[in-house]
Amino acid sequence: MALLATVAFSSCDDFLTETPKYALTTDNAVRDYNSADNAVTGIYGEYKNCSYLGGYIYANLHCMAGMWNYSSMMFNMGYTQSANDGIISTIWRQLYSIINVSNSAIQGIEKLDETVFAEGVSKSEMLGEARCFRGYLNLQLLWLFARWFDKPDSPYGIIYRDQVAELSNLQVGRISVGESYEKILDDLKYAEQNAPEYSTALRMNRQFAKAMHAKLLLVRGWDGDYAEALKLVNELLADKSSKWKMETDLSKLYENGWNSAENSFSRFLGDQTGSYNGISGYEYVYSAGLFYYPEFTDQIQEWLNNDARHDVIFGTARSPETWDTTKKENILTKLYHRGRVDGKNDMYATYPMRYAELYLMKAELLARTNPSDIQGALAPINEMRAKYSNPIMEPLSGINTHAELMDALFKEYVVTLFLENETPWFASIRFEHEGKLWINILKPDVNFSSNQYCWPIPEEEIKAHNDPIEQNPGLE
Q: Beta strand pairing status for 327-331 and 436-437?
């Protein structure tokens, strides 16, 4: 009957179809400042345990884009409600489990009087942190499981939950695409004004909220979105007081991971070193999958091999199995590191928003809002490249047309952020080359339509509703 009623501090993989089991309720969980702080901290604990919300998402999206064939189902876009590999359902469950914990914290904190909060910590700041989490997670749901590319009145938005899951509120239908964006932006905008300033990638912060707000607008691309996104990106780049900044030595970025000042938010796994597989056990794709599937599709591999960053982000590494001492060259060691045997506690971090991405976003937004100014749009990319001390990168040159500019932008997105987050996937269905989307160029033999730009809502969720909810068209 009830689905995804996981509650604060319960296992991320609980898939409840009967009466929910609660670790806390909003009536008794948050009573004072300490319990409010614990409730917010509990969101991070739940997120940490959800091992499918990092590399698995980004790997699958890169396969969909035609950049990697780690999953043939994702590469061929063959997923439907009744035919998928189970990873889709797990990602769905895990996202909603963290949203449930976020809702518990938000509901509890909202009931507290401002006077119970510790000196220097406001009620709105704590709410901003929790709402930033909820907004980000709902954005992931929209991008993965809803028709985010539809018009506002499309009924294929997210299943929006803003209450702690109980039997009385589990039968929630889908809201429209437009309403989905409104709910997400309400949380992100609140966080932009109220969440803490960036001090570490280990906590949600107002800079991350603003950057994800800008990325949402860039991906959505409705009237006025590009101009508004450009304003947000310019504000972030102009904020010289922020501790969020570029890591000029690229090798240090990946060595430091969630401790790098360039990473605006990351899933912290540093307290998992004592488990059997250590930190690597929470990021299988990065710590093992990259060894078994080390090659990427031809055009992508060529770009990566010939880029100035190649020797920093690729290297030699051994197998992730204790019984196999095989070593391979040209492994994407920026994410694989040393693998789960030699480096089980290496920095298997996620990078949902790096500072460098701001420069790429600015370049694209300038190119789309003022397409005649080629050199103006190139300037942010070359500013980013000039900041690196390792490796030394030459400025992009010889670009004289808008088409050449857009090709250079797409390539820079891919090489800079490859397998780190969802951005290269979205770029593959936003950028064209000679009149064809890059996704069609990268996998010319795969037949698909825009229906496959999202995943099916899991069958368990569909069957759990007494009042039927509609599956995404073409994915039944």
A: unpaired
- What confidence tier does 84 reach under pLDDT thresholds 50, 70, 90? confident
- Provide the residue type at 63 as one letter: C
CB-count burial class (<10 Å; 0-12, 13-18, 19+) for 276: exposed
Neighbours of 398 (CB within 10 A): 6
Judge whether 253 and 262 are in contact, CB under 8 Å. Answer: yes
Angle, alpha carbons 184-188-190 (nearest 5°): 120
* Count of Cβ atoms closer than 10 Å to residue 113 Cβ: 8
439 Rama sector, left if φ>0, alpha if ψ -120 to 50, beta otherwise: alpha
Residue 221 identity: G
Q: In this structure, are strands 327-331 and 432-433 parallel, antiparallel, or unpaired?
A: unpaired
The identity of residue 89, as a single letter, is S
In this structure, what token pair is assigned to residue 163?
């209450």
Q: Is the pLDDT of residue 136 over 50?
A: yes
User: Which residues, 6+ apart, have CB-to-CB distance to 402 below 8 Å?
Assistant: 367, 371, 372, 374
CA distance 297 to 67: 5
| β-strand partners of 317 | 328
Q: At what angle do helices 355-369 and 206-220 cross, to 10 degrees?
A: 30
Provide the β-strand partners of residue 318: 327
Q: Measuring CA to CA, how many Å separate 384 from each of 67, 363, 388? A: 24, 10, 7
pLDDT of residue 120: 80
Q: What global pTM score does this model have?
A: 0.94
Q: Which of 16-30, 131-145, 155-169, 244-258 has the lowest mean pLDDT?
A: 16-30
Could you read off the pLDDT of 182-192 as tens digits, one per residue?
999 999 999 99
Task: Judge whether 15 and 25 are in contact, CB under 8 Å.
Answer: no
> For residue range 358-398, what is the model confidence (pLDDT) as tens digits?
999 999 999 999 999 999 999 999 999 999 999 999 999 99
Cα-Cα end-to-end distance for the chain: 21
Q: Is the peptide bond before 391 cis (omega within 30 degrees of 0)?
A: yes
| Cβ contacts of 292 within 8 Å, gap of 6 or more | none
Eight-state DSSP code of residue 288: I
366 Cβ neighbours under 8 A, 6+ residues apart: 230, 373, 376, 377, 380
Number of other residues whose CB lies within 10 A of the CB of residue 14: 14
Token pair of 383 as six digits: 């500013």
Q: If DSSP codes are grouped into helix, strand and coil, which group holds residue 433? A: strand
Residues 347-362: what's their mean pLDDT?
A: 97
The torsion of the CA quartet 384, 359, 452, 449, rounded to 10 degrees, works out to -90
Q: Which amino acid is at 137?
A: L
